[in-house]
Amino acid sequence: MKNQRLQEILDAALLEISQASTVEEINNVRNTYFSKKSELMGMMSLIGTLPPEEKKTFGQEVGMVKGQIASAIDEKAKLLAEQELAKKLEAEKIDISLPGKNFAPGSKNPFHVIKDEMTDIFLGMGFEVADGPEIESDMFNFELLNIPKDHPARDMQDTFYIDENTLLRTHTSPVQARTMAAKKGQPIRIICPGKTYRRDDDDATHSHQFAQIEGLVIDRNINIGHLKATLELFAKKMFGEKREIRLRPSYFPFTEPSVEVDITCANCGGKGCNMCKGTGYIEILGGGMVHPNVLKMNGYDPEVYSGFAFGIGIERVAILRYGIDDIRKFYQNDVRFLHQFKKKI
Ligand code: PHE
After folding, report:
1. Do residues 148 and 268 share a domain?
2. What average pLDDT does the segment 181-210 reach?
3. Is residue 101 domain-resident?
4. Is CB count within 10 Å lower at the N or C end of the chain?
5. Averaged over 70-74, what is the pLDDT?
6. What is the pTM of this model?
7. Which structural domain range is residue 54 located in?
């Protein structure tokens, strides 16, 4: 190279390029050599001012140096960009072969397991499922079930009142009256699983909220034998073929006669133990023949139609089936409790 200064600029540039170790540094080198104020660019603009004999050689040399520096910068910039990307990828690497987080599958609350099983048993006997509101009127919850305002039976079913005539239903029995109103004198065979409420102290066997399955059959010539056979079949399907039931006289204002139904204790098979308090039996439900007043009030002629009804506590059945010692466990959603029923589902 004829021009000594150009050689120096080229050497200096190549050295700086070789020393640049980041994309930012190589960009700085580029700015230094190619900005308008740089010496190299100054020499470029000098070319036009030179006499023709010098112009050619000098022009060629400046062009060559400029080209060499530019391509060396491009090459190094590309290399550094690749290196930086590789470093970034390495740092942000995700090991997709690592085992993922394990979400243990949940399990049905034993309450629902039992509710569904009970419902299935009655569906198998030809019952339909009916529904009714949990916020109920005094009319449906009491009056139409033959429980007038000052009836002492109301004491046992104190509940949460929204206003004087609106309350949280104390049993699923209002669905009896609602179904009779809907069926308008036609035969009925329904069950109604649902939530019920009472003013109760919450303890191991009581809860202010619990659930029942109501049953109601109305037709011509229905007698207490039908009630007994239905409940016996239910008990055997639910608790096993060996179970027997017994009917004890009881009292409900909306049935006459009324019965409490007990099943033989699973724990002792009827001999008497702690669980059945020595009696050999455990109470599971209340029922009876629909009271003629109830039939009449709800549009059925008691001379033509008769029927039976029953109400079964769902938690009570679940408690007996699984040997659960505290009703509150159904509502707490503690997975340590719930997972115990996984295998049984
Ligand atoms: N409703 C009653 C109760 O909750 C149970 C019952 C239902 C009794 C139907 C007779 C007929 O205690």
Report:
1. yes
2. 92
3. no
4. C
5. 95
6. 0.71
7. 4-92
- Examine the domain organization and report whether 116 and 85 are in the same domain: no
Q: Write out the two tokens for 164.
A: 């004087």
Longest dimension (CA), the chain: 135
If asked whether residues 151 and 194 sit together in one domain, one would say yes
CA 91 to centroid of ligand 1, rounded, Å: 69
Calculate mean pLDDT across residues 144-148.
96
**271 is a domain residue:** yes
CA of 156, closest atom in ligand 1: 12
pLDDT of 344 over the 70 cut: no
* pLDDT range class, residue 343, cuts 50, 70, 90: low
- Ligand 1 lined by 252 (C-beta under 6 Å): yes
Going from the Cα of 273 to the center of ligand 1, the distance in angstroms, rounded, reads: 27
Residues 52 and 162 occupy one common structural domain: no
**For ligand 1, mutation pick of 136, 173, 195 (most atoms within 8 Å of CB):** 173
Cβ atoms < 10 Å from Cβ of 231: 22
Statement to judge: residues 326 and 246 lie in one domain: yes
Per the CB < 8 A criterion, the answer to whether 20 and 80 are in contact is: yes
Residue 194 CB less than 6 A away from ligand 1: no
Q: How far is the CA of 209 from the centre of ligand 1 (A)?
A: 16
Final residue in a domain of this structure, among 24, 57, 92: 92
Let me know the angle formed at the C-alpha of 340 by 334 and 345, rounded to the nearest 5 degrees.
Answer: 115
Residue 283 CA to residue 262 CA, distance in Å, equals 4
What's at 81, amino acid-wise? A
Query: pLDDT for 54-69, tens place per residue?
Result: 888 899 999 999 999 9
Minimum-distance ligand 1 atom for the alpha carbon of 176:
9
